Amino acid sequence: MAEPKTKYDRQLRIWGEQGQTALEKASICLLNCGPTGSETLKNLVLGGVGSITVIDGSKVELGDLGNNFMVDESSVGKSKAKCVCQFLQELNDAVKAKFIEEYPEALIETNPSFFSQFTLVVATQLVEDSMVKLDRICREANVILVFARSYGLTGLVRISLKEHTVIESKPEHFLDDLRLNNPWPELRGFAETIDLDVTDPVAHKHIPYVLILVKMAEEWSKSHDGKLPSTREEKKEFKEHIKARMTALDEDNYKEAIEASFKVFAPRGISSDLQQLIGDRFVEVDSSSSDFWVMVAALKEFIENEGGGEAPLEGSIPDMTSSTEHYVCLQKLYQAKAEADFLVIEQRVRTILKRIGRDPNSISKTTIKSFCKNARKLKVCRFRLVEDEFNSPVLPELQKYLTDEDYSVAGGFYILLRAVDRFAANYNSFPGQFDGVMDEDISRLKTTAVGLLNDLGCNGVTLTEDLINEMCRFGAAELHAVAAFIGGIASQEVIKLITRQFVPLSGTFIFNGIDHKSQLLSL
Q1: What positions does the domain THIF-type NAD/FAD binding fold occupy (predicted)?
Q2: Residue 78 to residues 16, 61, 105, 200, 432, Cα–Cα distance (Å)
């Protein structure tokens, strides 16, 4: 067996050793191992989760060979859970794999406490009634739940848990933390030792842009009542001032300063997202608070005191044109400030832990350090109970989705995926599942969908005939291509949730295979 370090080399570059460790500790339960479930689990087994439990009561039929790569002719008539489990085990022998030959619906009804042993449950191809019951069970037990469903050319993924907090949200584009608009004393002091009018041309073109901007911003605010450029005109004028300081055309440092001047115009202090976070009711911590909220409480105190309205400094600086000497000095300045901020927050965390009666050292230095580094990027996701969304979705949003041209197909599929479950509850089969009754099923599904829309308060909204016909034509088939895609999305979400890195989908993800569009509905 390959060493895990080389075996998982590619993914370690994305989520690091901590992320991999979290995956290796996770135990995952899969409900129903048709193509959607099998494809989801395949990605997680290859990624190296700790253990999997496959739950499915059905036997492999000939039809399964056409949409599931994890069963073959020799599997026909055998337990589907057993066959899929064996196949998955072969993909990665480091994963503990087991199966239970039972229908998930029965388990949900008769043995709800069964689910509390898992880190996360992936529930595939469940109808509404079972979704609602399982959601309640998992909420009670604090188990993360991910729903995934493929249905003809459409499908959905929906996460459900009370709260998910992320320190390493890893946004793609984020403004670096240079404090050019609000330099701390040491940075300002260093900038004061630099002369922008130095006569030596080599020295002039090697002043790092950070220092140019700190000095120019200081100069500007002195002559503008302590304010920085805010209007379009002022910003233009500020850039002209920088340009005027150039003594030669090839001065890259000044070009960089002009390009980065927007960093001076950014408002001082913390973002509205962070403002909202430190104003959250969970900031009032007690002995049952999670480590995340204890650190947020410390962060709030820091911002209001030592931080002077700013979050702790991140401490890294980008590449820039500079003399080595200046760059190293800057690097040390930023690192020292970040370290000092971290020590203050660490002390505050320890004090808070003591106050709420917990071991002051129960949160590691590494965790606090990572928290400080990511303080401006923290994310909290909260998910509505599926039952609440189903009974009372956010009406203005739902109406927008159903009538807005960009969203109407996704909105329509969302309603129809629920309508087919109502249909099945009434008629014991899905629309179009059996030959010969297509026309009757179309009109029945239409009536069911209209009834559902009325119950939700969307009277007068109609779904297109085409969409209703398509939904019947699907006949509840699980197409492999759609299942592989939905399984890909679901497994990606599972990895985000377990590693606590990146931001999971908030809302219901709808795949529309007719137009090849994916959309997120927040209801």
Answers
A1: 8-506
A2: 40, 9, 20, 83, 28
- In angstroms, the CA 177 to CA 213 distance is 14
Right CATH number for 2-168+479-521 from 1.25.40.10, 3.40.50.720, 3.40.50.2300, 3.40.50.2000?
3.40.50.720
| Secondary structure E strands in 80-162 | 96-100, 120-124, 144-151, 154-160
Q: What is the dihedral of CA 360, 362, 365, 371, to 10 degrees?
A: -100
| Rg, the chain, Cα only | 28
Number of helices and strands in the chain (H, E): 22, 10
Backbone phi and psi for residue 470, each to the nearest 5 degrees, phi listed first: -60, -45
Amino acid letter, 16? G
Paired tokens of 145: 């739940």
Residue ranges of the chain that CATH labels 3.40.50.720: 2-168+479-521
Is 511:154 a contact under the CB 8 Å cutoff? yes
pLDDT tens over the chain, length 523 residues: 445 567 888 888 889 999 999 999 999 999 999 999 999 999 999 999 999 999 999 999 999 999 999 999 999 999 999 999 999 999 999 999 999 999 999 999 999 999 999 999 999 999 999 999 999 999 999 999 999 999 999 999 999 999 999 999 999 988 899 999 999 999 999 999 999 999 999 999 999 999 999 999 999 999 999 999 999 999 999 999 999 999 988 899 999 999 999 999 999 999 999 999 999 999 999 999 999 999 999 999 999 999 999 999 999 999 999 999 999 999 999 999 999 999 999 999 999 999 999 999 999 999 999 999 999 999 999 999 999 999 999 999 999 999 999 999 999 999 999 999 999 999 999 999 998 899 999 999 999 999 999 999 998 899 999 999 999 999 999 999 999 999 999 999 999 999 999 999 999 999 999 999 999 999 9
Q: State pTM to two decimals.
A: 0.93
Cβ-defined contacts of 332-340 (< 8 Å, 24+): 333/186, 333/187, 333/190, 336/186, 337/184, 337/186, 337/187, 337/313, 338/312, 338/313, 338/314, 338/372, 338/373, 339/315
